[in-house]
Amino acid sequence: MKQLIHTKYKTLTLFLIIGMIIALTSQCESLIKSFVPGGKYIVGGYKAVKKLKEVYKAYNKEFTPKEEYYIGRTVSASLLKKRRMYSRSGRTPIENYIAKIGNTLAMASNLPETYQGYRFIVLKSRSINAFAVPSGYIFITTKLIETASNEDEIAGALAHEVSHVVLKHPTKSISSARRTEIVLDLVKYGASEAASASKIKILNNLTKAFGGVIDDIGKGVLNGYNKDREKEADIAAVQLMINAGYNPKGLSAMLRKLKVGGGVHGNPKDRARDVDNKIATYGGKIPKMRRCRKNRFKRYVRKGKIRRRAR
User: Fold this and answer.
1) If we measure between CA atoms, which residue out of 309, 288, 286 comes closest to residue 299?
2) Are 191 and 50 part of one and the same domain?
3) Which pLDDT belongs to residue 35?
4) What is the model's pLDDT at position 22?
5) Residue 63's pLDDT is what?
6) Position 67 in a domain
7) Residue 210's domain spans which residues?
8) Which of 204, 222, 240 is the last residue of a domain?
9) What's residue 77's pLDDT?
10) Last residue of a domain, which of 187, 222, 257?
C-alpha cells in the first residue's frame, strides 16, 4: 500500500512538473527562438551566453504553492518507505498534541498557510531528529519528544522546522548543477521539432532531472542544510516562538541536550550559543515558561516516556 501511495504521488508530481515545463517553454518561446534560430544551437558567442542567462533567469524561480505541495507529498512518501509513523490514524493523544503546538507556531509565522495546510507527523524512532519537507510536512521523532523536558523545548524544535518551510530552504536545496541541467534541456526542448523522437528523449531527460530534484530535497531534509541556513532557521525560530507566546530559551535548552551526528544538524552547542545571543537582544522581554504548559506536557510525556493515554 505504501509503495502504491509513493508511486501515485510521484506520478502526479511528474505530470505537474511536465506541465510546468511546457508552460515555461511557452513563456520562454521568444527567448528560445532567438537563441536557436532555425532549430540549431548558436555555439558560443556573447549573444548565446546572454540568451542562455535570460532563459535560466526565467526558469530559476520559486515553485508555486501547488508545485511545492506535490513535491512535498512525493518526498514525504519516499521518506516514509523506510520510517514508521507513530500510528496509522495520526490521531493519538501525542500526535494531536504535537499538531496543536505545530499549528500554533505556523499561525504565528510569516507563512501561516500552505497549499492544503501544514502536517505534523510523529515518527517512531530511537534517533533524535526533526525535519521539514516542502509545503509544510514536518516530521518529529518519538525520541526527540521524549528528550524534551517541557512544551517550550518541543516548540523550539518545531519552530526551527517551521522556519525552514517559511524560508523555503527545502526547495532551495536543489543543486545549482541540477538547475543548469534542466535549463539546458529546456532550451533543447524548445529547439526541437514537435513530436520528434529527440523531443520525446529530451522530455524523458527532464522527467529524470526532476526526479533528481526530489533526491536533492530528500538529502537536504535528512542531512541538514549548510551552516548559514541552519543558523537562519534558528534565528527565525526565536522570533516565531516569541510571536506564539513561547519562551525561546526552550530552543537553546533543547539544542544543548543534543550531540553532533545521529540526525542532529550542525553543531548543537554552537547553535545554542547563537540562539542565546539572539535572545539577549530582546533585553529580557520574552514570554515566560508558563506552569499550565508544564502541566500539559506532563499529561503526554512523563519521565522521558510518551504516555499512551493522556491524563
Assistant:
1) 309
2) yes
3) 37
4) 42
5) 75
6) no
7) 2-61+174-222
8) 222
9) 87
10) 222
Grid cell for residue 258 = 543534543
3-state secondary structure of 84: strand
Pairing of strands 137-141, 301-302: unpaired
- pLDDT tens per residue across span 151-163: 999 999 999 999 9
Judgement on whether residues 44 and 135 belong to the same structural domain of the protein:
no
- In a shared domain, residues 158 and 49: no
Q: Which residues of the chain carry a pLDDT beneath 50? A: 2-5, 15, 18, 21-46, 48, 177, 191, 193-195
What's the total number of domains in the chain? 2
pLDDT of residue 82: 86
Single-letter amino acid code for the residue at 109: S
- Whole-number pLDDT of residue 71: 82
Q: Does residue 153 sit in the same domain as residue 103? A: yes
Q: What is the DSSP string of 188-245?
A: HHHHSPTT-HHHHHHHHHHHHHHHHHHHHHHHHHHH---HHHHHHHHHHHHHHHHHHT
What would you measure as the largest C-alpha separation in the chain, in angstroms? Answer: 74
Contact 109, 233 (CB under 8 A): no
| Cα dihedral sign, 195-196-199-201 | positive
Q: Are residues 232 and 269 in the same domain?
A: yes
Query: How high is the pLDDT of residue 70?
Result: 85
- Indicate if 229 and 212 belong to the same structural domain: no
The answer to the question of residue 78 being in a domain is no
